[in-house]
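S1.2 Input.
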Amino acid sequence: MVGQVPGARSSFTYPQLLHDTFDAFYYLYTSMALVGKYLNGEDDAKMALSEIDLNGPNDDDLFLEWLMKYEKLGSKLSLVNLELFDESNPSPIPTYITLDFNYSDVKFESQEFKSILQFVPFFIINYDSMLRKYGSISLPEKEIFCLMEEDWRDGPEKYSLTYHVHENRKHKS
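S1.3 Output.
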């Protein structure tokens, strides 16, 4: 009765599907869903970058407001390099992203993530710097701080730049 559909005519059988086939499909689908997740943030990253000068000096107050405004976007996109390139800071950025070595023909042009790849390192370095300035948490000097919601053990406020800035403003008033 292996391969026979219950209640169906006895002449109908379905092919035996291998566990490996499902695994391969699952991993490929998961990888493509990951790409889709980041592509959805490309327009937001482009808009954020249009509001700030990446190469020049920025007014400290406006820059701080920009970091707080895009705090959630930075959190959402902060792992893009690790998840898509398996490196925290790939240099140079590969021309193509190949997500699964079993399907090397499935590629995405890195250019599709241009704004994200500019936004993420700029945001993380500056967010970390401002958090050290305004925050009350101590981080090792070389640690790059990534705001990851799943790591918020003591509540988001302990790790949020917005929270610390608002607390500092309350105490100054």
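S1.4 Remarks. Residues 19-39 form the longest helix (21 residues).
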